[in-house]
Design a protein that fits this description.
Length: 88
């Protein structure tokens, strides 16, 4: 939780004209960290993908809180990497 935000912000700063897709898992704090980064950089984060490890789904209060203020289509949960289907 303490290391990812500054590292991601450094990447955003290093490439100011690029947009990013954030990929993580639900095991620790990725949803909360990525949600905040997307709110702080709305034009830079194209999508967020979270590998959902607990099987709770999008309706879980954790995800509603982590991704509050973001467009519902901007964040996605998946079980296995091959489950990712995304169209911009």
């Amino acid at each position: 939780r303490d290391t990812k935000p500054p590292v991601i912000q450094e990447l955003l700063n290093r490439w100011p004209n690029r947009r990013f897709i954030l990929v993580g898992d639900s095991g620790e704090h990725d949803p909360e960290v990525y949600g905040q980064i997307a709110r702080d950089n709305p034009s830079r984060i194209t999508a967020i993908f979270i590998r959902e490890l607990s099987g709770t789904g999008r309706g879980e209060s954790r995800y509603r809180s982590a991704f509050s203020g973001l467009q519902p289509e901007s964040w996605h949960l998946f079980g296995q990497p091959e489950d990712i289907i995304w169209r911009k």
